[in-house]
């Protein structure tokens, strides 16, 4: 069975989970014979066991893992041999309909308000398929259902000005989370982030796919937001990352800046490990400001 044909059997969530399992195996340099515990994977990825099981069965069909009925799933091939599958997941990073709607909207080819019938005709999809994607987009905050009928698009990062605004917002928000009285570090998550960022610094910035690099970045910022103990900070950071994903999934990422970015992440994590939250907040604000200048005023993503 080919990678492409097998991937069509997965839902969007299952595909994302499979991609994250592949990324985890690659960044940790897992070897053939190692166990992949479902509960541990679900905790690391932040999902239930059901999509993890579906993703592992998919990877089993690709010959990367093998299921032992009584003991679970085990790696069949060393991490270095998973590169073709990682590249394939990067070529199809998300639900095609979701990306198509995002691209048409960003290009100005979809009006502010649109009916389901229009979208069904335009993208040649069934209503049930369309509604699943519209429900996801609604949860992410860039479309709302109108009273009566139809859908209304909300603001996206459709311009350099909007992208820069998102960075100013993050500079005000994310460092404040570290300084929050409720900020509480989960040691296992801290160590996992340190290993991941160190891997990027030491060569992962060359070997990881653009999608793996973007998601490692998102994981760093969302984990720190989670430690804040403030649900509004967590929700805001996740939403901004979702909107960034629409842009950055479509870009050919440059490698060298990713190494620098990971080095800065490590400095922030090291300050947090030393309980120097003021320094960590300062470094995070500087990190975000540097990214803003590079991406918006340098050769950026828009």
Structural features, described:
This protein has 302 residues and is mainly alpha-helical. It has 14 helices and six strands. The strands form two sheets. A three-stranded antiparallel beta sheet has the order 1-3-2. Strands 4-6-5 form a three-stranded antiparallel beta sheet. β5 (143-145) and β6 (151-153) form a beta hairpin. The protein is globular, with a radius of gyration of 20 Å. The relative contact order is 0.10.
Structural features:
mainly alpha; three-stranded antiparallel sheet; 302 residues; globular; disordered N terminus; 6% strand; single chain
Concise synopsis of the structure shown:
With 302 residues, the protein is mainly alpha-helical.
Oligomer: single chain
In DSSP terms (H or I, runs of 4 or more residues), the helix count works out at 14
Low-pLDDT sequence parts: 1-7
Give the % helix.
Answer: 55-70%
Structural class: mainly alpha
Mean pLDDT: 86
Topology record:
Blueprint: H1 3-7, H2 12-27, E1 35-36, H3 38-45, H4 49-61, E2 65-68, E3 72-75, H5 83-91, H6 96-106, E4 113-114, H7 116-123, H8 127-140, E5 143-145, E6 151-153, H9 160-178, H10 187-207, H11 210-227, H12 231-248, H13 256-273, H14 277-297
Antiparallel strand pairs: 1-3, 2-3, 4-6, 5-6
Helix pairs in contact: 2-4, 2-5, 3-4, 9-12, 9-14, 10-11, 10-13, 11-12, 13-14
């Amino acid at each position: 069975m080919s990678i492409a044909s097998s991937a069509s059997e997965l839902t969007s969530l299952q595909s994302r989970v499979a991609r994250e399992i592949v990324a985890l195996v690659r960044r940790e340099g897992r070897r053939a014979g190692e166990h992949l515990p479902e509960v541990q994977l679900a905790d690391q990825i932040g999902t239930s066991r059901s999509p993890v099981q579906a993703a592992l069965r998919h990877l089993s069909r690709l010959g990367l893992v093998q299921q032992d009925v009584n003991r679970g799933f085990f790696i069949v091939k060393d991490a270095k041999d998973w590169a073709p599958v990682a590249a394939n997941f990067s070529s199809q990073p998300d639900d095609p309909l979701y990306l198509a709607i995002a691209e048409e909207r960003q290009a100005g080819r979809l009006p502010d308000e649109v009916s389901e019938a229009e979208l069904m005709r335009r993208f040649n999809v069934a209503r049930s398929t369309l509604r699943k994607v519209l429900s996801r987009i609604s949860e992410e905050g860039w479309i709302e259902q109108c009273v009566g009928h139809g859908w209304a698009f909300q603001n996206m990062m459709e311009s350099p000005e909007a992208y820069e605004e998102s960075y100013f917002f993050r500079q005000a928000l994310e460092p404040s989370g570290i300084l929050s009285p409720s900020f509480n570090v989960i040691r296992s998550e801290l160590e996992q982030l340190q290993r991941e960022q160190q891997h990027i610094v030491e060569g992962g910035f060359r070997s990881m796919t653009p999608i793996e690099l973007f998601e490692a970045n998102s994981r760093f910022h969302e984990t720190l937001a989670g430690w804040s103990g403030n649900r509004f900070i967590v929700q805001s950071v996740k939403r901004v990352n979702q909107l960034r994903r629409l842009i950055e999934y479509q870009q050919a990422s440059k490698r060298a800046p990713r190494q620098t970015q990971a080095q800065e992440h490590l400095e922030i994590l090291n300050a947090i490990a030393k309980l120097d939250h003021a320094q960590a907040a300062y470094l995070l604000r500087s990190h975000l400001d540097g990214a803003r200048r590079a991406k918006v005023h340098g050769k950026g993503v828009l």
